[in-house]
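Field notebook, page 88. I keep forgetting to write these up properly, so this time I am using the form the group agreed on. The chain and the ligand, zinc ion, are recorded exactly as supplied. Prediction of the bound pose follows.
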Amino acid sequence: MARIDFAGRFQASARMNLVPGAYYLGFGCRNCGADLAVLDAPTQGDPIDATGEGQFEVQCPRCGEIHTYEARAMRMWQAATAMPGGSD
Ligand SMILES: [Zn+2]
């Protein structure tokens, strides 16, 4: 497990164009639940342990709301490899 220690306050922009199949670190939007990808996962698919007192201020690209997220709440997920409902 990769440990990442965050300290301080970060202003992060959520990634708009995720690479299908790639792993990202981030949060779920507190307002609408959208995935907010703020970092590329340093190790592909290995669990990460986010520690420290860091906080991320992230604007949601879907609903536009800005919230502060605890670094320790950071989670990892794999970007979808196909768009739901897409036919091509
Ligand atoms: Zn949102």
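OBSERVATIONS:
- The two ends are 37 Å apart (CA to CA).
- The first strand starts at residue 2 and ends at 6.
FOLLOW-UP: compare against the apo run.
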